[in-house]
């Protein structure tokens, strides 16, 4: 059994670069299902701490199994597998032992995702140990489910991990956690936070595994505002000292990132000293304030992303989630390796994980959803490992670009624009694709809906409207209580700019989106009924006030009572606003056909949001297509449902702004 897996893994490792040189085919030749199929391999290979071995989640009999490859001999051993479960989330404990969890993956809907747990095994397949039971075992036995998250390895040859468990804070309004040392050979956990400063949601250890920083969230009496308190101590016997306090609704929270290898220099991120965008600072203990600024960006928040190299005992760089991903190095060796890989893989975005004299390299590009390589830093050899979506290899995809435009009040709105490959960028049909949240943002990279639509000739715009996060506090707060108002105008203004430039045909525009994007779809059809020829809303909010009044939703609690009321409106004082921006209350203005889909088990935006809107539209005589994804939640988990949805989205859009619709319009 293992021999067959060995041949699969090793043949992949030894393939020449010709693996990725298939002939280019026309975009429309790609089956819609290929955009939505799960990745052939799960996650990325993970190098052991010494770089001598590599853990890979590889497919076998419809499941992902955990294989360990000795990079000197290329011998491969399947160390964990289960006929009913995928192995997921492997982490090296030391050079000879790993932990992992289990998952149903994209084979099942959300309702049946009862995996989790934590299990340990040696790199030769011996020493298996169940550390935390799965959700399914908890449900069937009545035993409590006590999940843990891994903070860090103890290091060296130790079989222990430092983990966090939130059992103590399950009933706390904002959570509370403790830190334990977990022995992966027997499952025993030793409490490390006897001296716990309170409702701590985040911990930072130094490089000697001493718990040094704790970040707690509490609700201030009277105002009900959420307060962050950050505590620091000099060593494990020293008392905790509060070094920082901030209200979350002012955007001034601190993100402690970790210590330098002197175990004294603390790195923190935040919007300090009146800054609009978060940056990375060195904490000044003498002044008890943010000190030297070591990383910032002109357009986006830098709220984390520090890269630590434990073996070299260096902080080597910072990753920035810009409109395109960016990487900046403090370390010359890392910078040289990046430059070498960039030169070897021109035109690709290159990331790598470096251990010892080996690196796992990940590339993405215009026609590259993701390819992985193994690089030997001594031999200077680069070998292909595998492609994330081999069904798309050799196919021509469409380039995602970053644009900026001015909203009508002068605010600059960044956006992603994907134009169909091979088409003249003139008078194209457009799909405005609106992200959820709305306190979220899109990121650069492959998106199956975007690429599927572009392959069929549609331009796709993804605006990062006000309220989107990661683009500075002013950009975010400009959207507070602006559902249906300036947030909606930002979308319209982007479309109008593309029309003005001649890129888009204003008579062939549809709007689509999930969650908040579903709301923006419905309200766009209300506010600009002559602009859109169709709308697609999945798992979308249809009445903002219902975010507060539907008591079986998971959108409740102190965060919603504080920041939620500032972002979305206060049900005690903003009744006029809620009525004004309710999509259901203004559904009579909708003219365009609508496709709506909801998950039967969605607790974020329960089914009632869609049912009320559907019933109102049908009562009015509107064209409505309705889908319920049984067992799904706030989005689709199961691969077949994603494929089904992709085909439905294309069919609906093509009917109203595709070639046939265009020809019909021209004849009229």
- The CATH topology of the domain at 400-667 is what? Rossmann fold
Order of strands across the biggest sheet?
Answer: 28-29-31-30-32-33-34-35
The value of Rg in angstroms is 26 Å
Distance between the termini: 65 Å
- What's the helical proportion of residues? 10-25%
- Estimate what percentage of residues fall within beta strands: 25-35%
Main β sheet profile: 8 strands, mixed
Number of helices: 14
Shape: globular
Class by SSE composition? alpha+beta
Per CATH, the class of the domain at 400-667 reads Alpha Beta
Count the beta strands: 35
Average residue pLDDT:
91
Unreliable stretches covering 5 or more consecutive residues: 1-26
Architecture of the domain at 400-667 in CATH? 3-Layer(aba) Sandwich
Q: Output the CATH homologous superfamily of the domain at 400-667.
A: Alpha/Beta hydrolase fold, catalytic domain
